[in-house]
Amino acid sequence: MSRIAVVPGSFDPVTLGHLDVIGRAAGLFDELHVLVVHNPGKTALLPIAQRVSLIEQSIADAGIIGNIVVTNWSVGLLVDYCTEVGATVIVKGIRSQVDVAYETPMALVNRNLAAVETVFLLPNPAHAYVSSSLVRQVASLGGDVSPYVPAVVSKFLQKD
Ligand code: PNS
Q1: 133 lines ligand 1 (CB under 6 A)
Q2: How far apart are CA 20 and CA 45, in angstroms?
Q3: Are 34 and 72 in contact (CB under 8 A)?
Q4: Ligand 1 atom, smallest distance to 77 CA
Q5: Is the distance from CB of 6 to CB of 37 less than 8 angstroms?
Q6: For the sheet containing 68-73, what is the strand order?
Q7: Based on the number of CB atoms within 10 Å of its own CB, is 63 exposed (0-12), middle (13-18) or buried (19 or more)?
Q8: 104 pocket-lining for ligand 1 (C-beta < 6 Å)
Q9: Is 120 left (phi over 0), alpha (psi -120 to 50) or beta?
């Protein structure tokens, strides 16, 4: 049986931490879907299609091997997408206890909703403090985000 997993997130923009988790997950599952989901609790920087494109380019540039689909979902619950594509696992990166507290209720709700399990992966500690919100703030104030994001994202943000 083919194991399909989903790595969901806002990815606004994708960071080196996200990419690290995507690379690790790609080695664990037969098929991996990186899913850009609008988070109504956050003010967006990039359009969804742009985020998808930057993730695709970042995965290619990093040489991440695997059966990887990058797409977006905006018509319902995350678990509805999982059911539609036959995914049984959601993968999330955990940087700290703060992430555990944020992710645990979502993982339990997703399991109650559709029996989809969540797997937490630990990223490279070098990326432990990197977040999209930090990147958005540094970029919006003209700072250098190249240590935190793939080169294609850094170039894209510097264009603005
Ligand atoms: O990168 P983020 O913003 O922390 O990702 C959060 C996200 C988008 C994965 C989460 O908000 C989500 O799953 N949204 C989809 C709506 C949904 O299914 N909600 C119920 C599950 S708690």
Answers
A1: no
A2: 22
A3: no
A4: 18
A5: no
A6: 68-73, 31-37, 4-9, 89-93, 117-121
A7: exposed
A8: no
A9: beta
Looking at residue 51, its amino acid is R
Helix (H) / strand (E) element for 34: namely strand 31-37
Confidence (pLDDT) at 160: 58
| Res 73: pLDDT | 97
Q: What percent of the chain has pLDDT over 90?
A: 91
The predicted structure's pLDDT at residue 119:
98
Tens of pLDDT, residue by residue over 103-150, are: 999 999 999 999 999 999 999 999 999 999 999 999 999 999 999 999
Ligand 1 centre and the CA of 101: distance in Å?
Answer: 14
From 77, 80, 91, 120, give the residue whose CB has the most ligand 1 atoms within 8 Å, as the site to mutate: 77
Atom of ligand 1 nearest to the CA of 105: 22
Please tell me the pTM assigned to this model: 0.96
Give 78-95 as a DSSP string. Answer: HHHHHHHHT--EEEEE--
CA 39 to ligand 1 centroid distance, Å: 6
pLDDT at 159: 76
Nearest atom in ligand 1 to the alpha carbon of residue 102 is: 4
